[in-house]
Amino acid sequence: MATDTRGASGESIDEPLHIEGEDHLEDVTTEYDVVLVDFYADWCGPCQMLEPVLEGLAGETEAVIAKVDVDENQPLAGAYGVRGVPTLVLFANGEQVEQHTGVLPADRLRDLIEGYTE
Fold it and tell me: What topology does CATH give the domain 17-117?
């Protein structure tokens, strides 16, 4: 089992973190080593299917799982080229390293995250 994810403040994040805008996303990706960002919409069926998978990964991996509601944060979604939901963007050491559109299985997401946390 992975250790708790802790930022510079020592605060642990073991559940998805809702992003409030571009500055908040930048702060999170800067503070934590590995961040998986889920660009989603409440009305999206595949997004709803992915939700429990991401909640599980938040508690069992070293990555921070961040969620961006594309309807509330359209400029932010546009800045990352999000054209469909869900879109998953992985950051490592403050830099975007991966981007995938669509639902990925839990084991594939775990492998993706662990590739940057080891």
Answer: Glutaredoxin (3.40.30)
